């Protein structure tokens, strides 16, 4: 895999309250994960003369040409809220321009219905291609290979035809722990449907947003949030103590207990976990207070027992603010 780049798409407005001075994080993996088949992901095919143009108006990242390299991106609501995180894989061998969309299998049907609303006169066809293709993380040679640039240490995202005889060396649970230790969210558990904006979900830091591209669904709020620099929440990895025997459902409240308040205050949402580490959408001001020792973060597990949460800042998170020109603005979108 080529060296991990620092592309122009990684543009951000760091929030001064993101400080984790006392937290010692677990060791983040540096080597890519073992080749793993991701049964939790499905594949949606978009083909036809207008496939690239059609997708360009729907996703947050620039869509590559039909013979180009795949990208990580996201679909948003017209109000700029997250729908699905995806990988777009061009299929160069197809007769007509074709893209394979790697998406959470639970949301594939809904995404297909959502996309059909925007087809209008576009010359495109949509179909579920999960019966023909499998999604893999890692592995050498073969398949449609896209460098996974969400964070260093993720290797390749690969689509393989189901008839290919490839042996998996890792499990999906191991891959989930690998990306959680890197602080990388993925799928419907980590991205609350129609709730959070992409910058809160770190999609901008994971190379999933191009702030220079033209109009797409949900662009207005995304651009405004980027230029105002006001991001009060982020998806942040954390260590749990004790390790819960029963995990709560996604979107369970994470609270903070403060000496000045008689009752706990909501600090964010639990998203997912594996072993002793997890991901949560947390308010940065409360993370900073907890890091200074001014409060304790916690949630209740599936059995109602209290579990303490200690966040840490991933080493790949940006540390400085690059300058960039403003992207095109889009009229007529709903805030």
Blueprint (SSEs and pairs):
Elements: E1 36-37, E2 41-47, H1 51-56, E3 71-76, E4 82-90, E5 98-104, H2 108-116, E6 125-128, E7 133-137, E8 144-147, E9 156-161, H3 172-181, H4 219-228, E10 233-241, E11 252-257, E12 265-274, E13 277-283, H5 284-291, E14 296-300, E15 306-311
Antiparallel strand pairs: 1-7, 2-5, 2-6, 3-4, 4-5, 7-9, 8-9, 10-13, 10-15, 11-12, 11-14, 12-13, 14-15
Explained architecture:
By secondary structure, this protein is of the alpha+beta class. The chain has helices at residues 51-56, 108-116, 172-181, 219-228, 284-291; strands at 36-37, 41-47, 71-76, 82-90, 98-104, 125-128, 133-137, 144-147, 156-161, 233-241, 252-257, 265-274, 277-283, 296-300, 306-311. The chain has a six-stranded antiparallel beta barrel with strand order 10-13-12-11-14-15. Strands 3-4-5-2-6 form a five-stranded antiparallel β-sheet, covered by helices on one side. Strands 1-7-9-8 form a four-stranded antiparallel β-sheet, with no helix packed on it. A hairpin with a 5-residue loop joins strand 14 (296-300) and strand 15.
Briefly say what this structure is:
By secondary structure, the protein is α+β, with helices and mostly antiparallel strands.
The main β sheet shows up as:
6 strands, antiparallel, barrel
Strand content: 25-35%
Structural shape: globular
- Placed side by side, the strands forming the largest sheet appear as 10-13-12-11-14-15
Please write the string of helix (H) and strand (E) elements: EEHEEEHEEEEHHEEEEHEE
Low-confidence stretches: 2-17, 321-329, 331-335
**How much helix is in the residues?**
10-25%
Spatial gap, N to C terminus: 40 Å
Summed up, the helix count is: 5
Instruction: Tell me the total number of β-strands.
Output: 15
């Amino acid at each position: 895999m080529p060296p991990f780049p620092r592309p122009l798409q990684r543009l951000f407005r760091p929030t001064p309250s993101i400080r984790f001075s006392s937290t010692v994080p677990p060791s983040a993996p540096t080597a890519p994960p073992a080749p793993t088949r991701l049964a939790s992901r499905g594949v949606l095919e978009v083909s036809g003369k207008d496939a690239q143009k059609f997708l360009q108006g729907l996703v947050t990242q620039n869509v590559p040409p039909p013979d180009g390299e795949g990208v990580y991106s996201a679909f948003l609501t017209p109000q700029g809220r997250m729908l699905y995180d995806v990988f777009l894989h061009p299929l160069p061998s197809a007769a007509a321009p074709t893209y394979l969309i790697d998406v959470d299998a639970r949301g594939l049907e809904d995404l297909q219905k959502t996309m059909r609303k925007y087809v209008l006169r576009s010359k495109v066809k949509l179909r579920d291609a999960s019966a023909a293709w499998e999604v893999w993380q890692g592995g050498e040679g073969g398949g449609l290979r896209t460098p996974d640039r969400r964070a260093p240490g993720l290797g390749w995202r690969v689509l393989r035809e189901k008839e290919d005889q490839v042996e998996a060396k890792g499990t999906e649970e191991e891959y989930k722990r690998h990306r959680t230790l890197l602080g990388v969210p993925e799928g419907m558990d980590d991205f609350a449907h129609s709730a959070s904006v992409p910058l809160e979900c770190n999609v901008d830091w994971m190379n999933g947003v191009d702030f220079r591209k033209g109009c797409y669904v949900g662009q207005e709020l995304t651009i405004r949030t980027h230029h105002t620099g006001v991001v009060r929440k982020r998806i942040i990895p954390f260590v749990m103590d004790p390790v819960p025997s029963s995990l709560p459902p996604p979107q369970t409240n994470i609270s903070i207990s403060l000496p000045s308040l008689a009752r706990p205050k909501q600090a964010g949402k639990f998203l997912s976990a594996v072993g002793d580490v997890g991901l949560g959408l947390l308010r940065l001001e409360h993370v900073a207070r907890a890091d200074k020792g001014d409060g304790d973060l916690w949630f209740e597990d599936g059995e109602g027992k209290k579990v303490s949460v200690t966040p840490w800042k991933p080493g790949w998170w940006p540390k400085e603010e690059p300058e960039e020109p403003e992207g095109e603005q889009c009229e007529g979108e709903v805030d």
